[in-house]
Design goal:
With about 250 residues, this protein is an alpha/beta fold. The protein has nine helices and ten strands. The radius of gyration is 18 Å and the shape is globular.
Length: about 250
């Protein structure tokens, strides 16, 4: 039996009045699955992730996290912590160490005073070190992020998000800045983690059809703010993705 973790129903969003970027989007995300949202630039992929995360409030529509209303302020605070977000461009702080970056993922569990002073409880530091080891950066924990390669910076972004202890991770153009080999290395690490004991739901936006086919349990194609195709990689062909984008 599949379990719905996050869903949106008939969601519309406009940055300016009557100029809609999302047009009646409905999408149900199941527990432990990897979703690839595929489409050209401007299709609405980034906006959809920001709406699902709660960064943007939709113009109209419904968003639920485990049956909780994400548009309700009370429910939103509870769900917000369970939905991780990895923005384009890694989103890491270059002049901080790997460990310091990853610890920022624990801010929702640490008092404001301690976070301002950079004083994290010992159990959070130990947890961060375990997460860093999980993504293959054990020997780089105290290195400045500015000294790392692109693939290593992306692993730091993964580790920081995992430190939040999310049930859903939304990753925007997750490997678009990496070379093909590094992209696959990073995606293998991420997918292995998400398919682990906790079964994290992973949503990645991409414009790379090969990556979408190789790593997705489910493919979603967006065009002009709407969803034009949904299906598993095994029941469709590459031409379907391309035609759905036109």
């Amino acid at each position: 039996m599949t379990t719905s973790v996050l869903e949106c129903i008939d969601v519309w969003y406009a940055y300016q009045p009557s100029k809609f970027v999302l047009r009646g989007v409905s999408l149900e995300l199941e527990e432990g699955k990897v979703y690839m949202i595929f489409g050209r630039s401007g299709a609405g992929k980034t906006t959809l992730l920001k709406v699902l995360k709660g960064i943007l409030r939709p113009t109209s529509g419904i968003i639920r996290y485990r049956s909780k209303d994400l548009l309700s302020d009370e429910d939103r605070r509870v769900a917000y912590r369970s939905i991780g977000y990895v923005p384009q461009g890694f989103g890491v702080v270059s002049n901080l160490s790997v460990l310091e970056n990853v610890l920022t993922g624990a801010l929702s569990r640490v008092s404001t005073l301690h976070s301002i002073l950079g004083q994290f409880p010992e159990e959070e530091v130990e947890r961060a070190l375990r997460v860093i080891e999980t993504v293959g950066l054990k020997d780089f924990a105290h290195n400045k992020v500015s000294s790392l390669s692109g693939g290593q910076k992306q692993r730091v972004a993964i580790a920081r998000t995992l430190m939040q202890d999310p049930e859903v991770i939304l990753a925007d153009e997750f490997v678009s800045q990496l070379d093909p080999l590094t992209s696959r290395d990073v995606l293998e690490v991420f997918r292995e983690i998400c398919k682990g004991e906790k079964k994290i739901t992973l949503v990645i936006t991409t414009h790379d059809a090969d990556i979408a086919y190789e790593y997705a349990d489910s493919l979603v194609v967006m065009r002009e703010g709407g969803i034009t195709f949904r299906g598993s990689p095994g029941t469709t062909k590459g031409m379907d993705l391309l035609s759905a984008m036109r």
